[in-house]
Amino acid sequence: MRVLIVEDERVLADTIAEGLRDEAMAVDVVYDGDDALERASYNEYDVVVLDRDLPTVHGDDVCRELVERRGGGRILMLTASGDVDDRVDGLSLGADDYLPKPFVFSELVARVRALARRSGPPVPPVLERRGIRLDPHRRRVARDGRELRLTNKEFAVLEELLRAEGGVVSAERLLERAWDENIDPFSNIVRVTMATLRRKLGQPPVIETVTGSGYRLEAR
Questions:
Q1: Whole-prediction pTM value?
Q2: Any idea which residues the entry calls the DNA-binding region (predicted)?
């Protein structure tokens, strides 16, 4: 899952980003509307967490533009106002959800995950294949009943493979979905993460390397 945070309060923006990264999400952060529109023009996001009260380019204008060029991502609008009329205004602009500040972080996470599920083809809340059971909401994964302790990136990579339902997922796709824009595109981080993930999943092997294409979870 990849998320864009658009918030001019830098401490709040960075705090939200770190919290979502701890939930195994890939997160990019910008602090104004211009940068938000630029990033969304070349990156694919499941969810945009958008502060409504942005300086320079107001959050309303950013929301309108993102909706007009909709690429599948959902918009969660944040505002310091909890007034009902403000919530109605935000939703009428095309935002998919609305959360007043201050908010409880666990609620923000739940809303982001709910929106992400709506941004693509329907997927079950718990993903299962080859004895692997992954619960994104509870951040738990097991194989054949054995609990596994995965890093955030290992968890995100495994989630992408499970969501593909046996389809091939390229290394480039994994970089886009599990890491943020600061990662070196020529890094071998995907290969390294895949090696540790395979070791933790144990025997028999379930992740297949498809030469020249990427990786997939074997059907049996």
A1: 0.74
A2: 124-219
